[in-house]
Design brief:
By secondary structure, the chain is α/β, with parallel strands linked by helices. The chain has three domains: 90 residues, Ubiquitin-like (UB roll) (Roll), CATH 3.10.20.30; 92 residues, Translation factors (Elongation Factor Tu (Ef-tu), domain 3, Beta Barrel); 139 residues, Rossmann fold, CATH 3.40.50.80. The strands form four sheets. Strands 11-10-13-8-9-12 form a six-stranded antiparallel β-sheet. A six-stranded parallel β-sheet has the order 17-16-15-14-18-19, sandwiched between helices. Helix 6 packs parallel to helix 7. The radius of gyration is 20 Å and the shape is globular.
Length: 336
């Protein structure tokens, strides 16, 4: 039996046949829904069920029971149990169309032992993208590797933070031998992780590892902005030496409204005077009530899954919680 799906924001409608997911039916009907991994691992295809219900063959990794209870679903895995009316949160933001274009390596340098700072020069006038989005680097054999833009749009230079994988075919072999001036092909911009200006709530930004890259791009776009709400940034790393952007971030004081930077180390040395443990624990220690905040999560999928549950228990609004499951999402995007 076919069920009708109506998208609230666009007034589009399509039918889902037996055995299809909402996303599969949308694609068959030439209706665009944001998505990336298609395996339920990234959360990009999150929708809100305004009416109706869905079921899953297997409950998806990027959705928490708390989100499901609030009416959220992942279109790539959800199978309707009747007619649906849905809304798509990312439809509030307009994203440029992705395209393939040539780029040139402008700079390669090490930030720390396992993070490479890569700067690409793009053809003038540069790349139109929304801070928080990412690109695919297209390898000679057609495979791709995905990296978030780590700088706000400005001219034709774009920064990236590349986590080095020992023995990795791209980060250790190809990129390890690359030099400034080498050409690459990219596909960009991709993804829907972005700042939601319409919320105008105090911001809590939580990042682990190179998940700081899209957060950096978003916060750079808010520097010296009179409409910037209060910002607290929690960045989780293992050791003090891993805080490769510490000086840059501390330099944002006075340029972001009521900016508070909280580095959190999971393997801190005896001399570390700051916070220890994990970012989600630090946020819980600092905030008894999160009902008035907008929260951005970027980094390890384990952190994001745990953080969603903990923050919801402190009243955080799932309508104002945005996540980029950095490692898992981008690995799946590349595999796809």
């Amino acid at each position: 039996m076919a069920y009708r799906v109506h998208i609230l924001e666009t007034d589009e409608a399509f039918h889902v046949e037996d055995g299809e997911s909402v996303l599969q039916a949308a694609e068959r009907s030439a209706v665009t829904l944001p998505h990336e991994c298609t395996f339920g691992g990234c959360g990009t295809c999150r929708i809100k069920l305004e009416s109706g219900a869905v079921a899953y063959d297997e409950f998806p990794m990027a959705l928490t029971p708390e989100e499901a209870a609030e009416g959220y679903a992942l279109a790539c895995q959800a199978r309707p149990l009747g007619d649906l009316c849905i809304s798509v949160a990312s439809s509030r933001q307009s994203f440029p169309e992705p395209r393939r274009l040539p780029a040139t390596i402008q700079r390669l340098e090490r930030y720390c032992d396992d993070v490479i700072h890569l700067t690409l020069a793009l053809p003038e006038p540069g790349l139109d993208y929304v801070p928080g989005q990412y690109m695919n680097v297209v390898l000679p054999d057609g495979e791709t590797r995905s990296f978030s833009m780590a700088s706000a749009p400005a001219g034709n230079l774009v920064d990236f933070h590349v986590r080095r994988i020992p023995g990795g075919r791209y980060t250790d072999l190809w990129l390890g031998q690359a030099q400034a001036g080498a050409g690459v092909e990219i596909e960009a911009p991709l993804g829907v992780f972005s700042y939601h200006e319409e919320d105008w709530r105090p911001l809590i930004m939580m990042a682990t590892g190179t998940g700081i890259a899209p957060i950096k791009a978003i916060l750079e776009s808010l520097l010296d902005n009179e409409d910037c709400p209060p910002v607290t940034l929690y960045w989780g790393m293992r050791t003090e030496a891993d805080l490769y952007l510490r000086d840059v971030i501390e330099g944002w004081a006075g340029r972001l409204y009521e900016f508070n930077f909280v580095p959190v180390l999971s393997r801190a040395g005896a001399d570390w005077q700051g916070r220890r443990g994990h970012v989600q624990q630090a946020v819980m220690e600092d905030h008894e009530d999160l009902s008035e905040h907008a929260i951005y999560l970027c980094g390890a999928p384990e952190m994001i899954q745990q953080a969603k549950r903990l923050l919801a228990a402190r009243g955080a609004s799932l309508d104002h919680m945005y996540a980029d499951s950095f490692t898992f999402q981008h690995a799946l995007a590349a595999a796809g």
